[in-house]
């Protein structure tokens, strides 16, 4: 039961990770700073998923990357490209619409239960 | 510190060379970001546990599929494999029986001959079966990786996305354009039979002598050395033929692309056939002198006769390949949509 719940919950969250990552990349972020920002808003993301995700976003030309070697430790920064900004805006709209619809659906269910 | 190096190495050694260094550097700095300046080994271990199995992480980085033959072709793969294994068994059985019948010489008793035949059948089936399995898998893995055939429903051919219209196409495909599975199977059987004949030519294509209850091949018609000289080309032809059969099976209909490939195959076959047939030493000298005795002709007359025979067969093959190629193109041109509208 709890195994099934865990796998369903993971499935539910999977698609939102891209959106969550994109939302934080309007300013340049490196891997770990992104993890911290996401965790601060309560989103836990497996780090073994996040680093490959960033690479994939770069390959899809949604973000660009650059190495910063000015500090003691070199860091790779990622930031939204202009194409990425467009896609992010579209995805965001899609998400808001979906979550609104779903909310209505779920609240309707609660009202039904009340009767 | 050493643990981190080892971890990064474990991940990157599984990655393509090109991206190795970049990911190593990034992973290194990311792991150090997670740790405080002077962390204990315990803390390091804890963080590495969070990152998880290096193999899994590496897999996430490459995003490469971990299968050889995906769902789009797996069904085809299985059915072709099963069919060709059965066919192989049949062909091996038949050729071995012929082989046994032709190698009877008075002294062998039927029991040991049967045992010997059975032994040969099992041995050869295993050998050929293993070869077949190996090559089929390679061909399908290649199709999967290269994307030669678009990942779509098999009936729709070159269509990239399935639409309900495909349903009507399947049934209204003109008969001539359709490639039935039985045709493909016949193709494969013929290939197997011809290949079997070629490689056993010294036993099967020969002058037979009556011995006791059976026959014994005594004088091979062809010079075995010449035939064996060409064996790599024969293997290549078989591979081409098998690949084309698989392609036809999956497509299920004639397309322009297939017609072109068919033409290329015909060209290669023609070149091969002409090369073999025009070899001066093609015929076994013993066979030539045998024929001289039988027909009472001089050596020179017989040679000229055989040359004519070769020339005629080359011309026949040319005619066949031209007709076959043309038919392929014609079938590919048959328009489906025109036939759909009443």
TrEMBL record, chain A:
Tree of life domain: Bacteria
Domain (Transcription regulator PadR N-terminal): residue spans on this chain: 26-89
Coiled coil: none
SUPFAM superfamilies: Winged helix' DNA-binding domain
Identification of the protein by name: PadR family transcriptional regulator
Species of origin: Jeotgalibacillus campisalis
TrEMBL record, chain B:
Protein keywords: Membrane, Transmembrane, Transmembrane helix
Residues that span the membrane, as ranges: 83-101, 121-143, 184-208, 228-251, 263-282, 302-323
Name listed for the protein in its UniProt record: Uncharacterized protein
Source organism of the structure: Jeotgalibacillus campisalis
Origin superkingdom: Bacteria
């Amino acid at each position: 039961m709890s195994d099934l719940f865990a796998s369903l919950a993971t499935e539910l969250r999977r698609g939102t990770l891209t959106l969550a990552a994109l939302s934080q990349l309007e300013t340049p972020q490196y891997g770990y700073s992104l993890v911290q920002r996401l965790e601060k808003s309560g989103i836990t993301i497996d780090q073994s998923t996040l680093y490959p995700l960033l690479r994939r976003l770069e390959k899809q030309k949604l973000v660009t990357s650059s190495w910063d070697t000015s500090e003691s430790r070199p860091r790779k920064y990622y930031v939204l490209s202009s194409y990425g900004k467009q896609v992010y805006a579209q995805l965001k709209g899609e998400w808001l619409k979906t979550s609104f619809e779903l909310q209505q659906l779920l609240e309707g269910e609660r009202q039904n239960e009340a009767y | 510190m050493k643990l981190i190096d080892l971890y990064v190495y474990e991940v990157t050694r599984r990655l393509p060379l090109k991206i190795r260094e970049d990911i190593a550097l990034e992973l290194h700095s990311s792991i150090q970001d997670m740790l405080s300046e002077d962390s204990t080994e315990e803390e390091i271990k804890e963080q590495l546990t969070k990152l998880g199995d290096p193999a899994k992480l590496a897999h996430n980085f490459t995003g490469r599929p971990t299968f050889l033959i995906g769902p789009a072709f797996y069904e085809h793969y299985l059915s072709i494999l099963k069919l060709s294994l059965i066919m192989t068994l049949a062909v091996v059985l038949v050729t071995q029986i012929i082989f046994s019948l032709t190698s009877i010489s008075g002294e062998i008793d039927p029991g040991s001959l049967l045992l010997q035949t059975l032994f040969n059948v099992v041995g050869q089936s295993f050998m050929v079966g293993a070869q077949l399995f190996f090559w089929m898998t390679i061909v399908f893995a290649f199709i999967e990786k290269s994307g030669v055939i678009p990942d779509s429903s098999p009936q729709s051919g070159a269509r990239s996305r399935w639409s309900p219209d495909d349903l009507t196409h399947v049934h209204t495909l003109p008969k001539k354009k359709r490639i039935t599975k039985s045709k493909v199977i016949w193709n494969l059987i013929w290939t197997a039979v011809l290949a079997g004949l070629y490689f056993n030519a010294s036993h099967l294509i020969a002058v037979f002598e009556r011995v006791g209850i059976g026959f014994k091949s005594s004088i091979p018609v062809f010079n075995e050395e010449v035939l064996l000289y060409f064996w790599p080309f024969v293997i290549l032809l078989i591979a081409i033929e098998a690949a084309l059969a698989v392609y036809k099976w999956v497509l299920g209909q004639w397309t322009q692309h297939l017609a072109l490939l068919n033409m290329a195959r015909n060209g290669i076959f023609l070149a091969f056939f002409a090369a073999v047939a025009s070899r001066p030493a093609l015929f076994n000298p013993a066979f030539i002198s045998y024929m001289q005795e039988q027909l009472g002709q001089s050596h020179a007359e017989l040679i000229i006769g055989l040359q004519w025979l070769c020339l005629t067969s080359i011309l026949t093959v040319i005619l066949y390949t031209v007709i076959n190629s043309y038919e392929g193109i014609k079938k590919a041109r048959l328009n489906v949509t025109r036939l759909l509208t009443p």
